[in-house]
Amino acid sequence: MSTPLDRPEYAASGPVPGGRPGRKLGPIADSVGSSHRAWLEPTRTSYLASGLTLADLSTRVPLAKSKLSELMRGIGLYPRWELIAGIAVILDMPVWPLQRLWRQAALDAQKTREWIERSSGKHPVTTSALIPPLEHGAFRETVEDAYRLYAQAFLPDGPRDTSVADTFDILWLSWNGALASPDMRSYAWNILRATVMAKTPHLDGRPELGTAAFDTVVLRALTYDADRMTQVTESLQLFKALTRLPDLQLDVMVLRRLYGFTPEETSALLGLPKPMVQSSERYAERFLESVFTPAPETEGPTE
């Protein structure tokens, strides 16, 4: 399963943790869901970048080292907010986005609202947003509408909006890593893609485009020959073929052909050079053309 920070789909980098004494922190358990990973991965990244050991952390929060290890791997009971808030303070993490992601994951874990409020202890769940870094706010204002369009190609309105909101919360939590990366735009896009894909239904390992994307495909017909594309869209072959594209080519085609972004706009959103965007589009078009090239006609039997 792809995740926003640990296993990006293509070209991104975050902070590289240094070495530390003691046993190496194990990976996140495979059973951990996407909403839990949304806050756990940035927390792990902040911990690994802090230079602290689990023993160091254990002296500052009321939890044994073994239990902290389980928490950092997503093993055991879902953690109380009071504990996560204490860790956030030690790791100098922004509390508001962490709170929102923690709360959403708690609801997904079938925790009641009463449990959520009770588990907050002296650190109640905040309902009013704090101000993110100015650069984060400016970046969000620039790309949010485009991010929502991309998510809309795969998800209905509710999950679409949640995915976009989660993307910016995760980006806020990992802001230092974003600034230290070779290209913040690519770093942010990888978070968006992984967050959207975590909520997108998959068939045979490939994401399924949603109803909104299908409506757009029919309307735009990907600019191919109108008569042939009418037959293709009616049979849904093109719709299915798009999902067979490699990740980058699929993203480029969603932005370029479904929503009409220019190569320059697509390059800026993905944080990739314009020639790479154009090359990806050409390869995708060749694949689609190979899929829909009609077989040569053969003469029927003669009497």
Q: What is the highest CATH level, the class of the largest domain?
A: Mainly Alpha
Q: Under the CATH scheme, which architecture of the largest domain would be assigned?
A: Orthogonal Bundle
Going by helix content, strand content and strand pairing, the class is mainly alpha
Cα-atom Rg, whole angstroms?
22 Å
Low-confidence stretches: 1-19
Number of extended strands: 2
* Count of all domains: 3
Strand fraction equals under 5%
* Mean pLDDT figure: 83
Largest sheet: 2 strands, antiparallel
Could you tell me how far the N terminus lies from the C terminus, measured between alpha carbons in angstroms?
59 Å
CATH topology title of the largest domain: Arc Repressor Mutant, subunit A
Order of neighbouring strands in the sheet with most strands: 1-2
Helix/strand order: HHHHHHHHHHEEHHHHHH
**Rough shape?**
elongated
CATH homologous superfamily of the largest domain, by name?
Winged helix-like DNA-binding domain superfamily/Winged helix DNA-binding domain
- Number of helical elements: 16
Give the % helix. 55-70%
